[in-house]
Amino acid sequence: MATELEELVGFLSSPSPPVKKAAVEIVRDLTGSEDGSLSLSKYASTVLPSLSQLLKEKKEVSEPAAEALINLSLNSNLAAKMVEMGMIKTAMEVLYKPDSSIARLLVMLLVNLTQLDSGIVSLLQIEDDKMQGLFVTKLVRSFCRSSDETRDDPFDHVGSILVNISKKEAGRKIKGSQEHSATVAFEAENQLQNLLLISEFLWPALLLPVAGKKIYSEQETSKMPLELGSALSIEREPWDDPEFRVEALESIYLIIVQEAGLRAFWSVNGPRILQDGYEDEEDPKVMEAYERVGSLLVHGSGTEEPSSSSETPK
C-alpha cells in the first residue's frame, strides 16, 4: 500500500490543476527542511522528473516547482541526478520561453547545478560540437544586456555560473600541470581549451563586476568582444557584493596563470580594465585580489602584451 509521501509525489502528475498546485506547494515546503528533503530523496526517480515537467506550467505551479528543485539541488547526489536527467537543458528551454515568469529561480538552479563537473559539462555542451557554447552565449548576453537596466535583474546570478565554470575548469588545468602523468596534463590542457573556446562570453561576466565606473570610448572597445565592449560603453550600476568581486578576480587569476589564458586576457584589454577598476575600488580585500592578479601580469609579461606564434583563442 502506498505511503502518504508516495501519494503526494503521485499527485504532482495529477490531471487536476488544483490538486497538482496543492501537491507541489506541499513538496516545496518539505524541501525547506533537511528531513523533508531526505524523505523526498527516496523518491527521486519520480519526484525530480515530475518537478521538471511542472517548470513548464503556469507560474502558480512552476514557481513552487522551481523553488523545490533549488532546495533539492543543494544535495550533491540529487543535483547529479538532475544533471543526468537533462535538467539543465530543460531549465534553459523554459528560461528563454517568451512568457517565462521564473527566470530568476531558473538561474539560481543553474548556479547550484554548475557546482558539479557534470553540470558544467552539460551547460557548456562540450559533447555536442554543433551546439557547444550556445547556452553560455545566451546567458552572458542576457547578463550583459540587462545588468545596467535594473537592480532587480533576473539574470544577476549568471556571474556566479560563469565563476563556477572558470574556477573549476582553470583550476583543473593548474592541478594537471602539477602532475607528472602525461595523460592528466593532456586532459587538463583540453579543459582549459574548452574554457577559452567560450572566453568571448566568459570575459564579460568576469570583468564587468571589477571594471569600475569608467565609460569606455568606441576606440577603446573596438578590440573587445561585442558583449563586453557594449556593456563598458554605457553607464552601469556597480556590483555591491565585494565577495563576488573577489571571486571574479580569483577566477581571472586561475585563467591567466596559464600562458594561453594570459594571451586571451590581453586580447580583450583585460589589464587596462582591471587597472581602471582598481582605481575605483575601496574594499581592502577586493583591492588585495586586484593586486594579486596585477602581480601575475607584471611577473608574467612585464608591461607588454605577451607575444606568441599562435593565434589568440576567441
UniProtKB/TrEMBL annotation:
A UniProt-annotated Pfam family: DUF384
Domain Protein HGH1 C-terminal: 251-304
Residues of the Protein HGH1 N-terminal domain: 96-174
Protein family (similarity comment): Belongs to the HGH1 family.
Name assigned to this protein: Protein HGH1 homolog
PANTHER family the record matches: PROTEIN HGH1 HOMOLOG
